[in-house]
Write a structure and sequence with these properties.
This protein is α+β, with helices and mostly antiparallel strands. It has 4 domains: about 100 residues, Uridine Diphospho-n-acetylenolpyruvylglucosamine Reductase, domain 2 (2-Layer Sandwich), CATH 3.30.43; about 120 residues, Uridine Diphospho-n-acetylenolpyruvylglucosamine Reductase, domain 3 (2-Layer Sandwich); about 100 residues, Alpha-Beta Plaits; about 100 residues, GMP Synthetase, Chain A, domain 3. The chain is built from 16 helices and 19 strands. Strands 12, 13, 14, 15, 16, 17, 18 and 19 form an 8-stranded antiparallel sheet that branches. Strands 5-6-10-8-9 form a 5-stranded antiparallel sheet. The chain has a 4-stranded mixed sheet with strand order 1-2-4-3. It is globular, with a radius of gyration of 23 Å. The mean pLDDT is about 95.
Length: about 475
Amino acid sequence: MVRSIAEKLQEALGQGKIFTDEFTLKDRRRDYWMLSQLDDMQGRRLPNPLCVVRPAETEDVVAVVNLCRENGSPLVPFGLGSGVCGGVKVTPQTVLLDMSAMTRTRLLDIDNLLVTFEAGVRGIDAEAIVAKNGLTIGHHPQSIELSTVGGWVATRAAGQFSTAYGCIEDMVLGLEVVLPSGDVFNTRMTPRASAGPDLKQIFLGSEGTMGVITAVTLTLRWKPEKRAMSAYYAPRMEEGLELQRFIIQSGWTPPVMRLYDASEVGRNFSDYKQGDDVLLLLIHEGPVARVDAEVAACSTLASNQGGTAAPAAVVEHWYRERNHVPSFEDLIKKGIVADTIEIAATWDRIGPIYKNVVRSLREVKGIVVASAHSSHCYRSGINLYFTFAAIPENPETMADIYKECWHRTMKETVAGGGGISHHHGIGRVRRDWLPAEIGETGMTMLKSIKKVLDPTNFMNPEVLIYG
């Protein structure tokens, strides 16, 4: 008698780790991608996986990987499902690897400012654990209550305080990864190395295609002594972007630098709207002397660039409400199809990309919102978060309009020399645009790495690399 993969998994892992009940299968069959939710709500229900496996330790993950490889079963890692690019989408043959039970803190080293979490630790819990010791990770994505440490690494995430603290790749010191071969790869704990290419970079942004991240070691910071807030109006996006460039290229790094166009000011900060001005929000953190000096310097730079002071209360409002956004489900029920798309570009390219994307989105039939804000700033460039929303006359066209808005945004970004993703990853929604990002030679390199690590392509197939 031939045993099923679920039976083999049950035998290898024991009781309480394999789930086949309808509730668990349905709950873990997709991530938060708008198009997947739209399919579900319009009757094009996505299939459930074959089973959900919830490992408790690295050895469990090794056993699952080996069995899936040997049986030719697709294996899809799952954190908490907060991804928005279609990185999790299953077939009836898929084994869904739910990492949410791997939640131990393996190390907290205050002298060296290190912490090692298992991959399933929820972001808000990770921050709370280090905060008890007067420390911070410095990584505060909007999804911090809905995402895992392993998911941060797998999608190459960025937090809202990244301008000073960096993105996840700047915080990761070490990784433990179960490779598709079943081998366990551990990176060495050193602050920096010149020992050939940095192999952990293969897994940053790999989205479950190169292996299963089981533990992450992060470098920490002491909690800042002081926090201050400031805000400025500027006449147009061009002036607001230039002000940000002057601030960061002058050597100042407010952790939060967010520039909202006039449309978003009216929608999100109506009580603080000033004509058609754009609005720059800043949060300053660090030693008292540095914060005081930075606030004064930014005020001077703003004045020199034609900016005018806005009430600091607008920043407090943003900080208080920053993670409260309408759910895709609520929008779909109202007949609205919407999404945010983050891209990045150098300073000389970002202005034209902003204009061309917004112009193109406004040509879409039924569009009611086409706007942008910046949220991550660097010496050589900046990101933009485009928001679109449309109300089609015929709900059956919602998916088509969604795809059209994405296509227009990607097309104008690529044409303008920008990068197609800043921190949400590729998944399925950006997959066809990846060759335009890294080139055919880059695609050949990436496919070659995938082929060496996962020759049978059972690790999250159809994501990142396809065909």
